[in-house]
Amino acid sequence: MSNKDSAAEPGFKMLADIKPPFIPEGASGMTILVEWSPGHPGLAPHRHAGPAFGYVIDGAIRFELEGEPERVVEAGETFWEPGGDVIHYQDGNALPDAPTKFVVFMLCAPGQPMLTYVDEAELAQRAHLRAPRPTAGQGPQGS
Predict the structure, then answer these.
(1) Is 32 a member of any domain?
(2) pLDDT digit string (tens) for 116-133?
(3) CA gap 44, 91 in Å, rounded
(4) Does a structural domain hold residue 16?
(5) Distance between CA 79 and CA 6 in Å, rounded?
(6) Which of 7, 8, 75, 118 is 20 to 30 A from 97 in CA distance terms?
(7) How many domains does the chain have?
(8) Which domain holds residue 84?
(9) CATH no. for residue 108?
(10) Which residues pair with 108 in a beta bridge?
(11) pTM over 0.90
C-alpha cells in the first residue's frame, strides 16, 4: 500500500505529503513535544541541521520561515521547514490566553546540533530575505 493509498483507509487522514529538499546523509531523527504557555514568544531566530515536520495538537503557533510570510498554524494543522541554511524566525504561541502544544519530528545531520541560534549580525545581513512584516493593526496571513 502506498502512502497515498493509506490515507484512503478508514482511520487514516493525510495531514501532509512533503518532499523535503534534502535529508542529511547519516541523519538521526528526533521527536519533541513543545508546550508554550499563553503568549509565549517561542524561540529566538534559529535554524535546524535538517528538515523538521510538525503537527499542532492544541492551540495555535505563529510560524515564520525566511522568505515566507508569517502565518498562524492552528490545532490539527501541520507545518514543515527544510532545515539547512533557512532561518526559522517564529514559533511562538499565537494565543494570549491559552496554552499551545505541538509535536515536531526533526532529522539532524551527524555531528551538528539540532538547533543553532542566529546572531544579530547575520539577521541584519540576511534581512532582505525575510518576507515583508505585517503593519500595525494588520494580522499575519492565515489568521
Answers:
(1) no
(2) 999 999 999 999 999 987
(3) 9
(4) no
(5) 20
(6) 118
(7) 1
(8) 40-129
(9) 2.60.120.10
(10) 28
(11) no
